[in-house]
Design goal:
Keywords: Chaperone, Cytoplasm, Disulfide bond, Redox-active center, Zinc. This protein is an alpha+beta fold and 291 residues long. It contains 10 helices and 12 strands. It has a 10-stranded mixed sheet with strand order 7-6-3-4-5-10-1-2-9-8, sandwiched between helices. Strands 11-12 form a two-stranded antiparallel ribbon. The longest helix has 18 residues, at 38-55.
Length: 291
């Protein structure tokens, strides 16, 4: 059962906005579905949390797709989040395992590698806006901050983290975004930087230790003034269905479908949630008629 939340608010007398996500259950659900290694879990968990943060400013049926196309052993990471707080994603090579950094942390940057970050926003009017920037580190938070500044001219600070235990389960995951608003002074920006510098633990550790969102937010804000404007539930949700995947089979054409009929069955697997769908001969013949 997923009980994650996303909160939106202002701080420093309205001179900056913030978004906080606790995504522990969401990332654990993704790990369980894909059977991922710890470093793959950390990479996908960070990107999914980032997708939830960026999607929080969207409306209705709008969504954002984040693609990390790096030359590391993960061979690419994809996450899709929408305005309803739903997110899904996958890594191309979920079993990748790498040595820890000297600090004892998972080496997400090495697993992702060098390459590009692509951000696509699908709007209600059907338009899709896509921006691509070179990755800064592959650690994901820095890459998203670089994208927001380069492509959208929005200075930001972002924390993303996933804490994976030795038994591979996710103990804590979360994300925190702060963006100064037009009225922000140099003192406001210095206060934000100073508070972030005082944090003694990563956001994943804080998410693991906090009993609720109020406690987590208090740890992150310290003595800074803040106001909560909105609270939302978030979670791992996939849009796949057997009917939707049957449309993919239709697109193969009659010859390919006939080969599947001769095999007397077909199986399709959703990249995003790893759900398996079986098609029997009768269903395949119906699909052949539609092709």
């Amino acid at each position: 059962m997923q009980h994650d939340e996303l909160w939106i608010g202002t701080m420093l007398e309205g001179n900056a906005r913030w978004v906080l996500v606790k995504s522990t259950d969401t990332v654990e659900e993704a790990r369980r579905r894909h059977g991922m290694s710890p470093v793959a879990t950390a990479a996908l968990g960070r990107l999914m949390t980032g997708a939830l943060i960026l999607a929080s400013s969207l409306k209705g049926e709008e969504s954002v797709t984040l693609r990390l196309l790096g030359d590391g052993p993960l061979e690419g990471v994809v996450a899709v989040g929408n305005a309803q707080g739903e997110v899904r994603g996958y890594v191309r090579e979920p079993l990748v395992d790498l040595p820890l950094k000297a600090s004892g942390k998972l080496d997400v940057g090495a697993a992702v590698g060098c390459g590009e970050l692509t951000v696509s926003r699908s709007l209600q009017n059907g338009e899709v806006y896509t921006g691509t920037v070179p990755m800064v580190s592959g650690e994901i938070a820095e890459d998203l901050v670089h994208y927001l500044l380069s492509s959208e001219q929005i200075p930001s600070a972002m924390l993303l983290g996933v804490l994976v235990e030795k038994d591979y389960h996710v103990a804590g995951a979360g994300g925190f975004l702060i963006q100064p608003l037009p009225g922000a002074t140099e003192e406001d920006i210095q206060a934000i930087e100073s508070q972030l510098g005082l944090l003694g633990a990563g956001i994943s550790e804080m998410a693991a230790q906090s009993e609720n969102m109020d406690e987590l937010l208090g740890l992150l804000m310290g003595k800074l003034s803040y106001h909560v404007l909105e609270r939302r539930s978030v979670g791992f949700t996939c849009t796949c269905s057997k009917e939707r995947l049957s449309g993919t089979l239709v697109s193969l054409g009659k010859k390919e479908i006939a080969d599947l009929i001769s095999d007397e069955k077909a199986e399709m697997v959703c990249h995003f949630c790893n759900e398996h769908f079986q098609f029997n001969v009768e269903e395949l013949r119906e699909i052949w008629e539609r092709a």
